[in-house]
Amino acid sequence: MDLIGVAVSGMNNAHDISADMEQGKKQQQRGKLQRLLREQKARLYIIRRCVVMLLCWSD
């Protein structure tokens, strides 16, 4: 391989690494969003159960 081929392959490797880092960041953000969504669903479930309990409760 000549010097230009080594430089080009080095640039491609750097691009691949940065693309992998970007993908990792996107997966992290997706994980955070999924966790927040799951927490919100749990809160809504609890609120819904409380409302039903209050509506159905009689002395």
UniProtKB/TrEMBL annotation:
| The keyword Lipid metabolism is annotated on this UniProt entry | no
Major site of localization recorded for this protein = membrane
Protein name, UniProt field = Uncharacterized protein
Q: Identify the keywords attached in UniProt to this record, alphabetized.
A: Cell membrane, Developmental protein, Membrane, Transmembrane, Transmembrane helix
Organism field? Panicum miliaceum
Which family, according to the similarity comment? Answer: Belongs to the DVL/RTFL small polypeptides family.
The membrane topology of this protein is: Single-pass membrane protein
| Annotated InterPro entries | DVL, DVL_RTFL_regulatory
Highest taxon of source: Eukaryota
UniProt keyword tRNA processing, yes or no? no
An example GO BP is: negative regulation of cell population proliferation
- Read off the Pfam families from this record: DVL (PF08137)
User: Where does the record place it?
Assistant: Cell membrane
Give the GO cellular component terms, alphabetically.
plasma membrane
